[in-house]
Every structure is written in structure tokens, then in C-alpha cells.
Amino acid sequence: MSHYEAPIREPLVLGDKSYHDITEDIAKPIEGAANKNWYIAFYISLAGMLWGFGCIFYTVGTGIGVWGLNKNIGWAWDITNFVWWVGIGHAGTLISAVLLLFRQKWRMAINRSAEAMTIFAVFQAGLFPIIHMGRPWNGYWVLPMPNQFGSLWVNFNSPLLWDVFAISTYLSVSLVFWWTGLLPDFAMIRDRAVKPFQKKIYALLSFGWSGRAKDWQRFEEVSLVLAGLATPLVLSVHTIVSMDFATSINPGWHSTIFPPYFVAGAIFSGFAMVQTLLGIMRKVTNLEDYITRMHIEYMNMVIILTGGIVAVAYATEFFIAWYTGSPYENYTYLSVGAATGPYAWAFWSLIIFNIITPQLLWIKKFRRSFIITFIISIAINIGMWFERFDIIAIVLSKGHLPSTWWRFEPTFVDVGIFVGTIGFFGVLFLLYARTFPVIAQAEVKTILKSSGEFYKKRREQGIPTKPAINVANVAGTTDKSNKE
Amino acid sequence: MYQFSGKLKTFSLALILVGLVGIGYGFYSAPKTVEEAKEIISHQGAHGDSHATSHEEVKVDEHHSSEGVETHGAVAETHASADAHGEHHDDAHAEHVLHQLKNKPWSALYVSLFFFLGITLLVLAFYAIQRVAQAGWSILLFRVMEAITANLVPTSIVMLIVIGSAVMHWNHMFPWMAEGTFDPTSPNYDPIIDGKSWWINLPGWAIRSVVYLAIWNGYRWFIRRNSIKEDTVNDNHKTYKLSYNVSVGFIFLFMITETLMSWDWIMGLDPHWFSTLFGWYVLASLLVSALTVIAFVTIYLRSKGALPGVNDSHIHDLAKYMFGFSIFWTYLWFAQFMLIWYADIPEETTYFAMRFNEYNLPFLAMVVMNFVFPILLLLNSDFKSIPWFVVIGGVVILLGHYIDIFVMVMPATVGAQWSFGIPEIGSLLFFLGIFIYATFSAFAKANPIPTGNPFLEESEHYHYYNIEHRGEGSGDHH
After folding, report:
1. B160-196 tens-digit pLDDT
2. Chain A, 237-266: which have a CB under 8 Å from a chain B CB?
């Protein structure tokens, strides 16, 4: 890769940083003690999680009937939350894999946390397919295993079965991808550790990484291959999730645009969640020099883009629903019936939070403002939840037969489980932020001299950063001078 | 500066001429009256061999199913009464075939026109994306992309002619333009299409079509002018930033106009059918073709020494895009096909049933050409930087996507009467000639290196890490 960088590009690492400074800054939250705020946040999350677990046990012990579902609306909060959490996870893979393929260097400061978010979000998502089963203890029957029922197997035609494969593959590949990237960073913590117990733990986690040239070469190749595999994976996972709906014959669900539109929505909501988390994290872990205003702005640009794609998809859905000439489409998602029916409030929340509010990000000042970014990212998280709720509940509430029209009202158990997953997610993420290097220091170090503020300024002023040797004259090349 | 060689110019003009003769032949040989159509039908039947017979049967089946399943109400009634009078039915059938045969030369022209216009448009969009993404690798290819977009002007003019001819009812490609479609008293009345008349109507369609062309050509005119201006002005990147902002606006408008264009120009050929994914599916097909064309022109110009600084890494990147978007196209193709196949709702399934029955070979061959072939050929990193490899892969991709457009258009306009012959080849040659002429004369008119671009040096130093640069005499080998 070229080591020349156009001066017009903004620096990615602020301040006069050396390699050692990067190590120090990233190791600090792990090596220090947690403060009071961390404990407050942790206990709140833990309380939410335990409450959610209580609701799950109550559901499994008593029966699905404790939820607000009825015989016409068989999916509501459960699958809404499932799709919402899977969608949130997608930004992590997008940042680590797709942005790697597109050689976006700004990904390096955010990919670690985005991937952590992916994995913790997929954990939450993975709960719902199990707990929304009537007989979750028979859940293992979805696996094609030889058995004593004359080898009774699963039917491979159901998108719900594809979901099983998609989510489990997605989780495992993301985990491996994440962990591979963590090896050099765990090794760094291991090498710095002074307490024997801590040293032992990080020695275990870092798999004996010693950072030899051959290791690095293979490391990079593995990263590229995994990125190349994770990209189609991330597209296919949410595609398969979308097919839970799109393969059906319900008006409002049966729509060929769902696969790419769900993926775009997933990236949209996932980036919003990354913004929410990093907006807080950069402050509390003092990583403002790495997660800069520019990172926030670039993520906002991705949000604008994917939000635009989603908006075009809404418009397409709306238009084609009318264009079909089918009277049934007029009662469903994104149609006159949805905009005016009993769920109009949910429909308009979607429009306001998802389409109208993010348009503020066209303004550069807002795009670069932390506080406005934070507010808009929360709005998008809400809006994208409503998108899934609208798709699922509004469509099911008004099917082909008017005699089946019914409404859905969540019970405290529905809400409690959702709150529980948010708590669980918070617990995992807070623990992660205290024990894992939240920024990929090995990666950031590769761009320090090409994209660091200090080095960029020096180059601009014509001051060589390595004055003694002029490599350009020795090797007969010009671009090496920037590399050293 | 590049010199558009006299040889290439003559060659492109020859292509245009030969193409025109082919197109003219297509129009000349199309039947003009029902009698001629009847003669052709009997001629087809008279072949007597099993192939012709089975073909005829399928065709009649299609004729029934297309009227029985796709249309409702008044038309179906007409059909029923037509069945009652056998004589009348033969006439109706002959007229139906006559319309399809009359459509043949128009459709041949339209498929090639849409293919070339769409490729040019997507090159323009890709160029805008490169600007907005502040790509560092592709700056040396900017003039190549700009030159290709010069093809937008002539193809838009031909498109305007086709739009005009449709408005004048010179062809029957769009069934909803037939007389009486919106008139309840007419035997041709189609209540389904009439229900969509708020969108599907002639003035609206024509105005929208002109607006799309105006937006695209407007951006192309502006950005080409501004890009050349960037070379010489020294205004602290003010011109560059203006190009950036206008490109953002263009991408916004492009997203919308492309979707609408695909509904108006392609999906409207089957006015009873609909698919929400369709706009993006067309987009993917044209995008991968556009990337292939950029790679072809780059490889050609580099071999002529007209692109100093473009190295194997640039070719590698283009080939990666060809590879990646081939898979993306397949993803959208499969998503659309599978969802319709899975749910099997009759009003949607007819679209693919028709294509499967009547266009079986091209329909399946295109999936092989657009997916299996590129994925096997372009997966290897080394292969992606070898020009002749990229060319082989690219030829198959381009042919595959031509077939894709062919299978989008032909079943709707000519149905079972399709063939691939002189009119189709003539149209291809005609637009290829225009493409070569427009592209290379535009490339010869400007500095091949956009010297004013702030990322130019990045592009000149661009080297993808595992690509070995073979003998292009560039000094930046590391």
C-alpha cells in the first residue's frame, strides 16, 4: 500500500503521539481501576439483565401466553427485538470487513469496539429465537442430527432454519475475526502486566503471539480473507432474516426488496448504535485523540447514505404497494392503512425518527457535533426498532380476512425481556471496556506516521521526521521517505 | 496527449454504418400487415420437424396463458368470445404475432440502446462515487471515465428518438400505450393498467424520461467542464470542492432517477408485473458492466501508452470491483427470483414462468456467465492484475449482462418470436461504433492526467500490497 498521503486528508490520530503514547492510552483503562460511574452503569445494567432473565424464566415456566401475542399476531416484540439486535450487530462487521476491503484507514480506531458490539448484539438476538419457542427445550430439533426417530430430519425450506445457520455462522465467524485481531493487542497487555495473575490471563488470551514478520504476514492475509468472507456473510445474514418475512405471502411482507433493504437498514441502525456507544466511550476512556470528530463525521456520512437507501426503499415499497393494484396492500406496512390505522403513531415515529431526523446530518456543523450526533443516533435506534415493529405487527394485525383483524398490546413480560437484553448488552460491553483493548493499537500504529497529525504537519512544513538519512537518494525511490 | 488514430476512427465509423444497415434490414424485413404475419406463422408451422412443432405449441400456450392469466376483465371476455368463433381467434392470434414481429426491430434497437446508455450512466455514477468517496487510487482513471461518459450524449439522443417514436405510436413495445387501454368502452380496455394511469400515462412517462436524461446529461456536462478546469486553476481547491458538492447532489438524484427509470423503461414493458427490487437489480447489472468497460478502455489505452502512471494495481482494483459486483448482481438476481419462486403468487410468477419456458437457454446461461465464470476466473489475486485475464473475464461478463437486458426486454415485447440475428447484431455494432467514436475522441481532447486533483499523487503512488508490477516502466514500485 502506498505510503504517500495527500495533505488534504484530515489526520486520524491527533496530538503529538508516539508509538508508546498509543500503547499507554489504550492500556490505561485496562490497567487502572474502575471509577464510580462505571460501577453505577454496571449495576443498572446488571439489574436490567436480571429482571430480563426473570421474565424469560417466567415465560418458559408459564408459557408464551404471558406475552401479548394472540392467535393472529404470533410475532411481535420477540421477533422485532431479534431483528433489531441482529441489525445492530451488522455495523461491526461492516466496519471491520467492508471498510477493510475499501481500505478505509479511519476504521482502525473504531473496529474493535464495533466488533465487540456485533458479538454482544448477536448474543441478545440469539436469545429470541429460543425463548419465543413454545417448547424451547426441544430447540435442538432444528439441528439436522441423526436421531432415534428413524433419522427424522429438518425441512431445509424454511427461512427460520436458514436463520439458525445464518446466525450461528455469523456469530462464530465474527468471533474468530475479532479474536484474531485481538492477538497482538492482548500480547501488548501481557507484556506490560505487572501482576502475575493478569499476566497469566493475557498470556492465555494472546495465544503466544510474538509478532514475527511471518506471523504478521499471515495475520494480514487471514484478515483479508476473513474480511472477504465476512462481507458476503453480513449481507446474507440479514438477507436471510429478511426472508422470514419476504418469502411469505402476506401483503406487506412479500416484497423482493427486503433483502438489500434490510441490510441497508441494519447498517443504518448499527452505525447509529456505534455512534451512541463511542460517543460515550471516547469521553470516559479519554480516547478523544483516536476517535476524533472526523471519525464521527465519517460514520454520520455512512448513516446518511444508508438512511438514504432505506428512504428510497420505503418510497419504493409505498409506490409498488399502490402500483400492484392489490387492495390488500392498502392496509399494510407503509401504506394508507398503516399511516392512518390504529398503529399510525408507530408508523409516524418511524418516519420521523428514521427519515426526517437524520436529514439534519446533511449539515456539516451537525455532522461534526458530538451532542447532536448522539441525539440523532438515539433517534435512529428508536426509529429502526419501530421499523421492525411496524413491518411485523402492522402487517399481522390486518391480514387478508377482516375477521382476523386484531391488535397487539405488549405485556410487562414483553417489555421486561427487551429491557433485559439491553441490560445484558450493557453488562457485556462494560466488562469488555474494562478488560479488552478497546482500540486496535497494532492497527493504529500502522497509520500513525502516514496519518498522524504531528507527522502530517511536519511533512506539510517540509520538516523531515527522520532527518539523518535521506532514503530517497539511497534507494532511488521517492515514496519511502514517508514510510520511515 | 492521446491521438485518436485514423484507423480506429474509420473502424468505429464502419461499425456505425454496418450497424445502421443491420438496423435498417430489421425494420425492412418486419411484416407490415396481418397477412404477412399469417404467412410467417404458416411458414413456421410448415417446417414440420419436431422442434418447430413443439415451439409452435409452446407459443400457443403462451398466447393463451398471457391473455388468460395476466389480463382480466374486458380483455379476458374478448378472449372468451374469440374462442367461440374459431375464425376470429385465428385473426386475433395473427394480430398478436404481428405486433410481436413488428416489435422485433424496435426491441433489438432498444436492448442495445439501454445496454449502452445504462453502462455510460453507471460509469458516470461510479465516477461521482469516486469523487465523493475521495478515492486515492482511481484519480489516474478519471479522464478514462469522463471519456466514456461522452457516450451519454449520443445515446441520450437515440433514446429521445425512441421516446418520441413511442409517443407517436410508431411501435408497440409498451403494451399500455396501445389504443383504448384506458378507455372503458374499448375492447382493448385494461382495468388493471387503467388503475395505474396516475403513473402509467403517456405525457407523464415522456416528461419523466426527458427529465432523467436532462439530469444525467446536465451533471456530465458540468463535471467534465469543471474537471478540466481543475487542471489549470490554482484556487486552493475551490473548483475541486464544487465538483465534490455537485457530485454528492448527483448521487442523490441518481438514486431516485435510476429507480424510476428502471420502472418506466423496463418494468413498464410488463405493466401487469411488479417487483420492489427491480430498480436495484437493473442498477447492479449495469454497474458491473460499467466497471468492466472502464477496465477495458483502461487496458486498451494503457497498451497504447496513453495512460502513464496506471499500473497493475489499478487494473487489479478494477478487476476486484468486477468480481465483487458480479457477486452482488447474483445476490440481487437470486433474491428477486427466489422470493417470487418461493411465494409463487400467480401475478408475479408469470414473469419468470415466461422467461423460463421461452428463454430457457439465455436465462440460465446468463447466470453462469455473470456469476460462475467471474467467480472462478477473478478470485485469484494474481489473475486480477493480468490484463488478458481481465479481458477474458470481462468479455463474458459483458455478454452475460447484454443477455440479462435481452431477457428483461424481449419476453415482454416479442414473446416467443425472439431470435438473435441481423437486427440485434446490427444494433450492437451501431452502438459499439458510437461508443468507440465518442469515447476516444473525448479522451483525445483533454490532458490524460487530471493534474489539478489533490489526490493525484496518491493515485500515482498507488500500489496494492501483494501485486507485482510487471514492466509498465513506472518508477513507483514499492
Report:
1. 999 999 988 888 889 898 888 888 888 888 888 888 8
2. 239, 243, 246-249, 254-260
Q: Cα separation of A91 and A174, whole Å?
A: 12
SS3 A347: helix
Residues of chain B in contact with residue A232, where contact means CB-CB under 8 angstroms, are: 327, 331
Rounded CA separation B474/B478 (Å): 10
Quick: pLDDT tens for B30-49.
887 777 777 777 766 554 44
- Tens of pLDDT, residue by residue over A145-197, are 999 998 899 999 999 999 999 999 999 999 999 999 999 999 999 999 989 99
Instruction: Report whether pLDDT(B56) > 90.
Output: no
Q: Which residues of A touch B252 (CB under 8 A)?
A: 308
Taking each helix axis as running N to C, give the angle between helix B86-132 and helix B142-149, from 0 to 180 degrees, rounded to the nearest 10: 150
Predicted pLDDT of residue A479: 47
Which of B259, B324, B327 shows the shortest C-beta gap to A312? Answer: B259
Closest approach of A221 to chain B, Cα-based (Å): 10
* Chain B residues whose beta carbon lies within 8 Å of the beta carbon of residue A367: none
The CA-atom distances, in angstroms, between A392 and each of A76, A125, A386, A395 are 6, 16, 10, 6
Residue A340 neighbours by CB under 8 Å, 6+ apart = none
Contact A323 B465 (CB under 8 A): no
Q: Do the chains contact at B277 and A256, CB–CB below 8 Å?
A: yes
Cross-chain Cβ contact B343/A248 below 8 Å: yes
C-alpha cell at A169: 455462522
The reply to whether residue B475 touches residue A477, judged by beta carbons under 8 angstroms, is: yes
d(CA B47, CA B52): 6
Q: Residues for chain A: how many in total?
A: 484
| Whole-number Cα distances in Å, A34 to A114, A285, A428, B59 | 22, 10, 15, 77
pLDDT at B383 over 80: yes
Q: Are B74 and B390 in contact (CB under 8 A)?
A: no
pTM: 0.91
CB B115 within 8 A of CB B282: no
Residue type at B470?
R
Contact B458 A5 (CB under 8 A): yes
Cell, residue B28: 425492412
Identify whether the C-beta of residue A162 lies closer than 8 Å to the C-beta of residue A240. Answer: yes
Nearest to A426 by CA among A59, A126, A25, A40: A40
The whole-angstrom separation of Cα A279 and Cα B49 is: 75
**Residue among B275, B277, B331 minimizing CB distance to A235:** B331
For residue B1, name the pLDDT band (cuts at 50, 70, 90).
confident
CA–CA min distance B63, chain A (Å): 23
ipTM of the predicted structure?
0.91
Kindly give the interhelix angle for B278-303 and B387-413, rounded to the nearest 10 degrees.
140
